[in-house]
Amino acid sequence: MDSLEQMPKGDTMRLRKRHIGESCKLFYRADPLKIVRAEGQYMFDEKNNRYLDCINNVAHVGHCHPDVVKAGSDQLALLNTNNRFLHDNLVVCAKKLSGLMPEPLSVCFLVNSGSEANDLAMRLARAHTKNHDVITLDHAYHGHLTTLIDISPYKFNHPGGSGKPEWVHVAPCPDVYRGKFRDVDYPNQDLGKKYADEVKNICKKAREDGRSICAFIAESLQSCGGQIITPPNYFRNVYKYVREAGGVCIADEVQVGFGRVGKAWWAFQLQGDDVIPDIVTVGKPMGNGYPVAAVITTPEIARSFRNTGMEYFNTYGGNPVSCAIANAVIDVLEKEKLRDHATRVGNHLLNLARQLATKHILIGDVRGVGLFVGIELVKDRESRTPATAEAQHIITRMKEEFILISSDGPDRNVLKLKPPMVFTHEDAEHVIKILDEVLTEVEDEPPRKINTNSPERRKLEDGYMSCNEKKIRIDDQQKEIISKS
């Protein structure tokens, strides 16, 4: 038995089954991995097999980054207490966070998790607006607390969920590939505006029904919903409509913040410098695996919360160890220029994936920005029928090839890649090479039956340029611009 194990894998599995709630998700349930250590973009099992980690967006600057480990261990050996005592780490962390945000986002509340952050954001919004109703997006997930399950269709519309509460309004997910307004159906139209108008209609209907909008909450790029890239002009218009209705706008950056998109620190900034939410929530990558998260808002909203008269206290939120680690993560991101790295490697990964799409008709769409990438699998490109079973098989096969990926989206047919930010060009090439081999296996066994007169066959033979091929041309142009800069 490896010295990093306390017991053999079989005993670990038996104890988990006996003492851990069965509803707790386990990756690769039929043949779970026992991970005993990790470093950079790699995880190692009890047999010292090395797995390339393409899904662990929590280990943001790489598993067990030495600077982060040192910051945490040094502070833990010195002091760990609550934030009702003065401590430099807390105020330095708040200053760093607010310094990465556009004005007027300058007041921070430190908490332990993304779920706590989103719950507190809801409290801030209600204290400020004195309203109650919330607008959320279809397929959204914002956390595991009761208040957040209520605004997460990803949960309340699925087994065990109790459906939508009366005070929750669900807007269509701004998915231009599979959503209500698809790019193929509305070519050359402003789909961001079309999707935003759905929120405008919700605000109008709520007012007519005598209801008042407290907040609009959305991930800046929807993750569990299927790696959705929000169309331009969406948030610009949505924020305008929500504010006109008396609500505030919450940007959930728990999955995509801290430079994952490469071009900016926060994904909402991809929509333009003039697109600024009223409240931003961050978590997961902030602590590189250590529990720390935050809410950043305006002085005005923070003042409204204070004026309720209710003291806010979080025993562990903002403790010196959490803040030391968060400060180290931000320092590493800047020192190692990981945002620029995410742009370069992400563009390379996207380009390779889109080239792969010209070879494999199982790939319906490739989308992403920085190191936030989704590959949507379909049984037929015309009907866009989700290839759910194929996606699950591919995930298992990739694991057998020592690459860890997962799937999401309402049909669980979108392969999602959100690796640690230290993921390299060579890693990207290796993932695509193995994915190519696995896709070939899936398409050849059983043999892919394509009618010789079908639109798919004609497109493949006649040099038809798919949406992914068009994206490749754009990627190549961007790659040339980056290489010259």
From TrEMBL:
PANTHER family xrefs: ALANINE--GLYOXYLATE AMINOTRANSFERASE 2-LIKE, PTHR45688
Lineage: Eukaryota, Metazoa, Ecdysozoa, Arthropoda, Hexapoda
Species name: Gryllus longicercus
Keywords: Pyridoxal phosphate
GO cellular component, one term: mitochondrion
Membership in a protein family: Belongs to the class-III pyridoxal-phosphate-dependent aminotransferase family.
UniProt protein name: Alanine-glyoxylate aminotransferase
Entry's Gene Ontology molecular function annotations: pyridoxal phosphate binding; transaminase activity
Top-level taxon in the UniProt lineage: Eukaryota
Cross-referenced PROSITE patterns: AA_TRANSFER_CLASS_3
